Amino acid sequence: MSSERELSNKKVLSEIFKSTLGERFVPIQEINFKDEYYLDQFVHNLGEIETKNPKLKKLFLYDRDLRFIYIDIALIVLRINKDGCQLNRKEELWEIILEREWTKSESEEYESLRYLIDYLDLDVRSLFIHILIFMDKLARFLSLVIDAKNLTRKSFDKFKKALKNLRGKEIEEFTCLINENTGWFKTVKDLRDDFIEHHPGASGIIGFSNGKSHVVLTTTEKMDMESKTVYMEFKTVYIKEIDDVLAQLKKFLQSLNDFLCNRIEVLPMKDED
Prior knowledge:
The protein has one domain (2-11, 34-270). It contains 9 helices and 5 strands. The protein has helices spanning 2-19, 39-47, 54-97, 104-112, 116-143, 156-163, 169-181, 185-197, 239-262, and strands spanning 146-147, 206-209, 212-219, 230-238, 269-270. The strands form 2 sheets. It has a 3-stranded antiparallel sheet. The protein has a two-stranded parallel sheet with strand order 1-5. It is elongated, with a radius of gyration of 24 Å. The model is unreliable at 16-22 and 224-234 (pLDDT under 50).
């Protein structure tokens, strides 16, 4: 009876597995921090100009911080891809056991992947945190290219809002560039605030749907008396969406570099209000 039940369960698992074949973790684009830290050109050009402005001199210190944070982001991306590769291997082991028993080495390998999903979840959350750290430091960096009183630079979010109150041709073009290239920022900030920093819930969940791999972030916010964790399915984070955020971040840095290089002679831009 037991063997029949085991055979039946194996058939059910086999059908479930077959229905998800082809739904695998697809690696996200890696960051070449040597070539894709696009502010390099602007900082290099600024270094060749004799400037006694103390604000612009501070740029070099903030640039150093930004470089190392960007390297951290690049390394986290590598970790996520490594996690995904191991996740795919775990799925392969499931496919094997539906056909035959594991060898001793395969069994040991599967055991070594026990906390894989937790690692992937941790690395995704870490990526969001470091992107926000980078953007907040970027606000300090960019505040130095503007000559304005009481310009908030404590965070990128506040810096972006403060720019709306400044006047001047260059500043307004600068504000437009930032608004056009950081639409993704609020999404990342909301995920970081709600699911990682302020109301983190149970973690370690990954799934596949519509041919996409995703991490499910959870929160204890707005929980009722019956449940300690609310699984927010609409906050599912597709790996492809993370890929898009990284692509937009790089595009933003490239556009930012071009803007600053083209206006290097008028820096810092003055507020006319």
